[in-house]
Structures are given as C-alpha cells and as structure tokens.
Amino acid sequence: MKNVFIDLEKCIGCRHCEVACAIEHSSGKELFSMYFEVPRPQPRISVKLGVDLMTFPNKCQHCDPAPCMEVCPVNAIFRDVKTDTVQVQEERCISCGMCAMVCPYGAIQYQVRPNLPNEVAYKCDSCISRLENGKEPACVEACVTNALVFGEYNEIIAEKQRGISLNLTREIQGYKEEEMPENIKAFRALQRKVAQLGPLPSSQNKINVNEKIKGASKRWISH
Amino acid sequence: MDKSLIKLKVEERTIDESAKPLLERTLEEGIETAWDRLEKQQPQCGFGQLGLCCNRCSMGPCRIDPFEKDGPKRGVCGADADLIVARNLLDDLVTGAAAHSDHGREVVETLLMTAEGKSQGYEILDKEKLYTVAKEIGITTEGRNDTDIAKDIALSFLEEYGTIKNSIDLSKRAPEPTQDKWAKAGILPRSVDREIVEAMHRIHMGVGADYANILLHGLRASLSDGWGGSMMATEVSDILFGTPEIKESWVNLGTLKEDMVNIVLHGHNPVLSEMVVKAVKEQEMVDLAKQKGAKGINLVGMCCTGNELLMRRGIPIAGNLLNQELALATGAVDVMIIDYQCIFPSITQVASCFHTKIVSTSEKSKVPGAVHMEFHPETAYDTAKNIVKLAIETYEQRNPDRVKIPAKPVKMMAGFSVEAIKKALGGTFQPLIDAIANGSIKGAVGMVGCNNPKIKQDYGHVTLGKELIKRNILVVETGCAAIASGKAGLLLPEAADLAGDGLKSVCHALGIPPVLHMGSCVDCSRILVLAAELAKALNVGIDQLPLAGAAPEWYSQKAVSIASYFVASGVYTVLGLPPKIFGSKNVIDLLTSGLNDVVGATYAVEPGPVAAADLIEKHIDSKRKDLGI
Ligand code: SF4
Ligand code: SF4
Ligand code: SF4
Ligand code: SF4
C-alpha cells in the first residue's frame, strides 16, 4: 500500500502543501494564473491548528475498505486499481453528503466545478495524474520539512522502526541522541506556554473555548 | 454565537474589565477585531515564526528545513539558517529604530520651525530643559535668546541623523564603562540614519555572511535609536511641551463620556495632539459643542500619543493597543485622530459600524476610509481647530441608542520623568540609591512593550508587575505596559500595599506607586537616562546595576529595537513572546549568553510571568552580590 505518511512532529503549519495542492488542481497548474481561475481551485489537504500551536495536515487517507465508497448510493466513489487510490466521479455525485458524514478524517468537502450544476464532493485524489507519471503528490513535493512522505507504508514504517530501535538502545547505553534539534524543542516549549496564556488552544487549559466554538470535540479526534 | 461561549471567549481574550462588555458587543454584532483575525490566521507559518523564511530577493523566497534532516539547509544564494535568521532580525530591529527615530526627527523639525518663527501655536515651554540640553551638547547659552539656542539645538540634533558628525551626542550620557564596552565591541552609534541605512545595505543579498557581525550592527543601530532618535524625541518634546511632572488622571474605556463630544488621540507623536489639546479649550469650540447639545468636549488618549498627553497634561487615557477597536465599538467616539504607528489598518472598518470618523493627519500614514486632514507645523493650530469642529459636527450624528460605555475609569498617577522622580526623592537620587543599597528596594525593572492578542490582554504585564513588586523590585514602565498597569490599579500609591515590605515603606514614605509611569515608548530613553544616573552615582557601568528589562506582551518591531538597546546598554531583558530567532541555535546562543562577554547583558525568553519574575530576581540578586550589597 502506497500512501502519504504524515510525520506530525515535523509539520510547522506553513501551508505550502495547501497551495501546492490548489495549483495542481488548477487548469493552468501555475500559481499566478490560478488566482484568476473561476471557481478558484481549492486545496484538498487542510492544515489546521491543534493545541499548543501545533498543526496537522489533514487529507483523505485512501482507506481500504473506504467508508465513503461503501455508502455512496450512486457509486460516484470508486477505487482506481492501478494507483490504489479512492476517486470521485464528479458527474455522478448527487451532493447527498453521505460520504462526508462517514469519512473519519472529514476529508470530503463540496465545491462547484466547471460545467456541473451542483456542488460535488471533492477530496484528495492523490494527484492521480502525477502518480501515473511516476511523480509523488504535489503536497509531498512541496513540504520542505518532510512532514509528508509518500511511499510504501511498510517501508516507511520499517525505516521508522529502525530509528526507534537505534534511539532506544542508544538511550539504554547512556548516549542519547535527540531526534529534534534543541532550538526547535525550546521553541515548542515556548509555544506551549504562550498557548496557555492566551486565546489559542492549549493542552493545559481545562475549558477550551475554541474547540467548543468550532464544534470540534473528542468525538472527532478519538477514533 | 452562543451567549455562554461569548463570555468564555471574552475571558480568554482580556483581563481589562472595561474591555469585556465591548468585546462582547463585537462578538455579538460580528464586528471583527484583532482577536478574531488572529483566530482566522491560524495556523501561522512556522518558517516565519522561526525566522527561517527569506523573501529578500527574487531567486527566493527560500526557507530552511528546521529539522536538519533531508530538507534544504541553504537558500538559493547559499545563506544558511544563522544568516537568514540574523538578517530577518536586523530587518525587524531597524524597522523599529526607524519608526522611533523618524518620529523624533519630526519633533526636532517642529522645534526648528518654532525657533525660526515658522510654526503655528508652538512655543518653548521648558526653558530649563532647553538650557540643560544646550549645555550638554556644547551650545552656548549666555547672553543668547531662547529661540537662537533652540535653533542651534535643532540643527545640531538634525545633524545626529546625518553622517558628518560620526557620533551621537546624547550617547555620551551613558556612563563611561558602558561607553567603553561599546567602543571595544565596535558598536558606538555613529548616526541615526547611517545605522539604519547601513542595516538595509547589510541585509541585501551578498553583503556579509557572518551572523554575529550582522547582529552586532543590530546592537549599534538600536543604540542609535535609544540614545539617539528616541532620546531626541523625548528631550525635544520636553523642550516644546514641558517635562512631565507627577500628576493624577484616569484610565480605561470608561474615560469616554456619554454626554460629551469624544475625541480620541491615537498614535505616537505629540506634535499635533498638543495643538488639539489647546484647541478644545477655546471658548468658541466649547460654545459650539454646547450649541449642539453636548456638555463639552472630552479628549482622551490612546496608545503612546495618549501617554504623551497623559504625562504632560493629565489627559485621561482610554487604553492600549488592543483597546483601539473596542473604543470605537462604544459608539461614543465622534472622531479618532491618528498620526502613526500601531494603528490597526482595520479601524475605519470598525468606525463604519457607527457614526465615528477617523481623521488621518500624517502624509506618511493614510488609511482608506479616513478623512485626511494633513498636519504641518506651519498650520498646526488651524488644522487642530478644524478637526475639533469636525468632531463637534459628527457628534450630532451619534446614535444614543448605540452608545455603550462600560465601567467607571480607574484613577492613576503618571508623569514620572527622570526629573520628576528626582524631585520626588528630594532633589537627589541618593535616597533611591540608599534604598537599593540597604535592600529595601532590591532593584528595578523597566517593563515596556505592547499588547499581543496571542496573550490575554494585560495579563502578562499585570501579573509580572505584581510579582516583581511583591519581591521588592521597583517597576518603571512606558507604553502599553504602563497603560495596562494603570487599568489594573497598579499606578496608585495604594498599590504599594501589594508590594513587599521594603518597597512598600519606600513608596509610603514618598507617596508614590510601586509602578511608575515614565511615558511613551520613545520615553524608554528616560529609563536609559535613569539607569545612567544611577550607574554614574555608583561609578559603575549600567550592566553592573541590579536592573532588568521586560516586554511580556510585545508585538512590534519597535519593541525589538528597545529590547536591543536595553541589552546593548547592559540591561538583561526578558521577552514574553519568542522573537523570530528560534530557527538558529547559534543566534539563540549568541543573544541569550554570548552577548554577556560583549555588552554585559543578554536577552531571555520566558512567556510565564512568574517564571519571568524568577529569572529577573535571580539576575538582580547576582548583580547585588557582585556589587557587594
Ligand atoms: S507543507 Fe509540510 S510543514 Fe507545511 S503545513 Fe504542509 S505538511 Fe505541514
Ligand atoms: S475520503 Fe475519507 S473515508 Fe474516503 S477514503 Fe478518504 S479518508 Fe477514507
Ligand atoms: S455526496 Fe456525492 S460522492 Fe458523496 S456519497 Fe453523496 S453522491 Fe456519493
Ligand atoms: S537572499 Fe538568498 S535566501 Fe533570501 S530569498 Fe534570495 S536567494 Fe533566497
């Protein structure tokens, strides 16, 4: 299974991925012309603020079996066998909202498309045309920090496991090598404190107004 | 939005009681404020926050992977994280220094025009200061009339901006050991404009790649602000409008009045606002206001223009940075006059929800949607009168049903210029030095800086202030920090009861608050002068004194410059929000420890007010120990 792996610790909320995604899904495939397209192309990956000023790039994970695909009453969602991705056939979509309701990531939104009368489901298509040309998805290419990595999941995880083994054994031997640079760790610690002192979501504050207001509750996070 | 959620949101945003009902109104009515915009800006880009984004040239923009693994480590030109962070910091710093200094220049120009008889409505109000400054910079006073002396001072000060002199006169006010340190480090400030222009040169691609060399220039540029541009702004404002004396006044949004024409003076420069103060006193204006059904004209300040007027005239002050949109949301402001700096570009949008007019007055600072009534010293008084007339006319359009004035104002004391402090001490600094020596006052902290919506409004200032006075540390303040303390009641002699026993007894004996309001942000130069006076009395450098600086809620580039000239002058300074330097370990190391060997002080970053107080106390204790007191 080939997919985009998200390394949460490395996401710094720059939203390059969002911009790159929108460009990829524009007809000109170019930043400056994109701004004049109607309707303006929308990103299919979304970077939102979590607690302590941490961020999470959220997108369709191309599940298998895919809940969205299973509930679609008109079979507008299908699996592309060659790329092993979940795709929307926009002309079929009847805007019923079922897929969006069942998607565990909230990865489906609705937008107007040229030549279609209704607002149809749109989500990450894993940049299928890029994949077919042997390239990685646009968001992955744009992510400077490598918070997004595209590849065979087992390979990425094996790599991660090797890292964990090295770190753990090093630690046992009394030689600790930090994964995260010192300055970034210091910065994150400061951000945690800043979040505690102001209106931005903090892991330390009991009542989190922003979470409540946005209607985001445990329900969405705990699965 | 649900009522209970609005209440919670308000509690998360501010501790200013007078702000709360208005914040509630903005949320109920969908009037957008800085807090809403902060929310909409999330998430904010980490490259920017870390200082790792360079957008200087058109090979870029470039960004450096902060995780040091596989991503880019250099920009297209080859700049690494250290260099990019240093260049960005220097850019911020000199933007701030330029803002202060350009403001200073306008005041000096007004002095020149006044001396030449070309300005309208101005006079030299503080002759004592005129003579003191003249003597200090080597201008003869004997047998000469005031205008000639003033002209020479103005011309000599304008030269501080130029490149001929190659040194800044007022920087000689620093104690010798401090000046020696500057000379040794090669950071003696040469001229206000020169350091700023050179900084802009240095951040161009390919002008030096040594981050430390760039940051050292930053210190020099900051000194040309603190001991140059800002100090000239302070001194010349004193000459023209009088050196502040201790006085009482009122603070918070409750200073706006339901039955009066309300004029808010917002921004930084006292030059026009002083004329407005004059104009509202004219019988013609008062009569006109009454004719329109108002009881009179109510003038209040906002931000540092407000601080200038408060310090010299006792004009009440409505609030600090984050209060500006809320003042408009009272529906009671008829005219808000703006000059420049810290004015949210959105104010005309908020004003448009009411009858309020925004009047811009500086050619440099136009805002779409504002009425522009340009100010020039030659016609200052006429302009001031015209603006007041406009306010009175606008009052007629006020909808009384939309007026919402919260809470009662809080009483406060201000006017603590160095001269006023000295006078309060009985004409000499000795009592203060004795109190420090015997430990009843442990030391002093200059708390300065802004509001920043990332931190609950005023919480940082007030909590740190209380924490410090409890530990017998005297707090002197300027800018938004001072306004925050005023709103919280800390600028009253009664607040001494919150202080430790030593500080409390000193305050009681002198009848002063434990937190002293020293003025606007250019008046941070007064803090430098005070520090210099103490150091000279003890025959040491400023870095040897039990002093510290703090900016718990800073946001602006000017704060970067202030923090830097504090540090460069030898004052350890704690910032409440991380500056954009955390992308470079080397820059952090230099600023938080390496500088000790260069200027005898460093920066620190600590958002938590209690933890910040701990750091400051520890620093002060160690300086006391070194001094053997
Ligand atoms: S590009 Fe990478 S670091 Fe930036 S927001 Fe997206 S996932 Fe995060
Ligand atoms: S849209 Fe949601 S449910 Fe469907 S494949 Fe993507 S992540 Fe899974
Ligand atoms: S919204 Fe469209 S794609 Fe989603 S389930 Fe309904 S018909 Fe299918
Ligand atoms: S100056 Fe260098 S790092 Fe900055 S944008 Fe240009 S190439 Fe990139």
UniProtKB/TrEMBL annotation, chain A:
PROSITE patterns: 4FE4S_FER_1, 4FE4S_FER_2. The keyword Iron-sulfur applies. Its cofactor is [4Fe-4S] cluster. This is 4Fe-4S ferredoxin. Residues 2-31, 51-82, 84-113 form the 4Fe-4S ferredoxin-type domain. It holds the Pfam family Fer4_11. The keyword Transcription regulation does not apply. SUPFAM superfamilies: 4Fe-4S ferredoxins. It comes from Petrotoga mexicana DSM 14811. Signal peptide: none annotated. Keywords: 4Fe-4S, Electron transport, Iron, Iron-sulfur, Metal-binding, Transport. Gene3D superfamilies: 3.30.70.20. GO terms for molecular function: 4 iron, 4 sulfur cluster binding; electron transfer activity; metal ion binding.
From TrEMBL, chain B:
[Ni-4Fe-4S] cluster binds at residues 268, 304, 342, 450, 480, 521. It is an enzyme of class 1 (oxidoreductase). Its EC number is 1.2.7.4. Its cofactor is [4Fe-4S] cluster. It comes from the Bacteria. GO terms for biological process: generation of precursor metabolites and energy; response to hydrogen peroxide. Pfam families: Prismane (PF03063). This is Carbon monoxide dehydrogenase. It comes from Petrotoga mexicana DSM 14811.
